[in-house]
Amino acid sequence: MTIQARRARMEQVDAVAPLFDAYRQFYKQPSNFEQSRAFIAERIERDESAIFLAEDEQGSALGFVQLYPTFSSIDAHRTWLLSDLFTTPQARGRGVGRLLMNAARDFALETGAKGLVLETATDNFTAQRLYESLGYIRDTGYYTYLLDLSQG
User: Regarding the domain with residue range 4-136, which homologous superfamily does it belong to in the CATH classification?
Assistant: First the structure.
């Protein structure tokens, strides 16, 4: 069975939105399809992210990866933040995550980026194995901090 990844456009919002909603649920957020659809549609419409959608031969959505542009002041280059990677449970173990990660890498190269950066949960060992098998190196030189402004 052939699985392909392509950049999502407005025509694919309805294919990406349920995947994005499931991704958010994976990270313990309540399901909110309307919010998920609106968020994805806005990112695509405003060209604020690059989203790649993996589909099988029948056009069934199997997963997605979302990248946000950022820049490194230290290196004075573009970098892409690989923010979201998700595959459906039935697609896992079929190379869909690897396909999407490679699509992200190819896109970063095409846009002249110096690299890709990502974060994952400390207990997401499956994702960590995938990233490391693709040459990603865990950063031990920097800490990540978050200032949560939603708590008032």
Answer: Gcn5-related N-acetyltransferase (GNAT) (3.40.630.30)
The whole-number pLDDT of residue 108 equals: 97
Closest CA to 51 of 18, 84, 78, 14: 84
- For the chain, the structural domain boundaries read 4-136
pLDDT tens-digit series, residues 87-108: 999 999 999 999 999 999 999 9
Give the C-alpha separation, 139 to 137, whole Å: 6
Q: Which two tokens stand for residue 136?
A: 């990603």
pTM for the model: 0.92
User: How far lies 115's CA from each of 7, 12, 78, 96, 141, in Å?
Assistant: 19, 26, 8, 21, 17
| DSSP state letter for 108 | H
**Alpha helix (H) residue ranges in 28-113:** 33-45, 96-110
